[in-house]
């Protein structure tokens, strides 16, 4: 029997809430820069972290938690999960699940597959962790390709609305364009009356 795949790219809510999410960290340069942006406006964000990077930079993980942001599972080593057998897939999730609990004291509730590489076999493993699987509305922003600040802004701006989930990256390479784009987008959404919330806060608002 196949398991039903349910990936949240946005949530249905009447509230003006947007979730900014950041993949592939923690990173010693760019994660703190992102944290500063959200600290300045008292907004919250969600970080889908790679387990081996969490092990390398535990102090940054602690800082994310201290500032009340959310951490989600993004696997241990960022593989294409559909190319792994179920045992290896489970190991990728379990190792990161464990280090999140170890470093944060909390059980992760959300997961994002690397490269959005996902199928029924992967989903059957993920379901055992009771994760909500999180996508995003703006992969066309392609911030990981360094397409330019204005490209990242304009493509992301097109997807902003109640319940939007936006994807950015704070790890793997030069993320200076992402930081500058996010700085501008954060000010725009706040000016438009949106709250910046974590994924779990966004899901909770939709389930009331």
Automatic annotation (TrEMBL):
<dbReference type="InterPro" id="IPR050248">
    <property type="entry name" value="Polysacc_deacetylase_ArnD"/>
</dbReference>
<dbReference type="InterPro" id="IPR002509">
    <property type="entry name" value="NODB_dom"/>
</dbReference>
<feature type="domain" description="NodB homology">
    <location>
        <begin position="16"/>
        <end position="197"/>
    </location>
</feature>
<protein>
    <submittedName>
        <fullName>Polysaccharide deacetylase family protein</fullName>
    </submittedName>
</protein>
<dbReference type="Pfam" id="PF01522">
    <property type="entry name" value="Polysacc_deac_1"/>
</dbReference>
């Amino acid at each position: 029997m196949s398991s039903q795949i349910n990936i949240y790219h946005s949530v249905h809510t009447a509230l003006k809430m947007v979730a900014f999410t950041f993949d592939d960290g923690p990173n010693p340069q760019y994660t703190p820069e992102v944290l500063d942006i959200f600290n300045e406006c008292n907004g919250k964000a969600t970080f889908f972290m790679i387990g081996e990077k969490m092990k390398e930079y535990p102090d940054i993980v602690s800082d994310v938690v201290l500032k009340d942001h959310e951490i989600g599972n993004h696997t241990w080593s960022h593989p294409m999960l559909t190319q792994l057998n179920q045992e290896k897939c489970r190991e990728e999730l379990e190792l990161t699940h464990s280090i999140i609990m170890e470093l944060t004291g909390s059980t992760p509730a959300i997961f994002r597959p690397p490269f959005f590489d996902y199928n029924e076999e992967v989903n059957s493993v993920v379901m055992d962790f009771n994760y909500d699987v999180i996508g995003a509305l703006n992969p066309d922003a392609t911030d990981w390709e360094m397409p330019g600040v204005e490209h990242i802004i304009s493509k992301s701006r097109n997807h902003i609305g109640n319940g939007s989930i936006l994807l950015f990256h704070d790890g793997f390479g030069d993320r200076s364009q992402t930081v500058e784009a996010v700085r501008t987008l954060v000010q725009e959404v706040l000016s438009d009356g949106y709250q910046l919330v974590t994924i779990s806060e966004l899901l909770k608002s939709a389930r009331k």
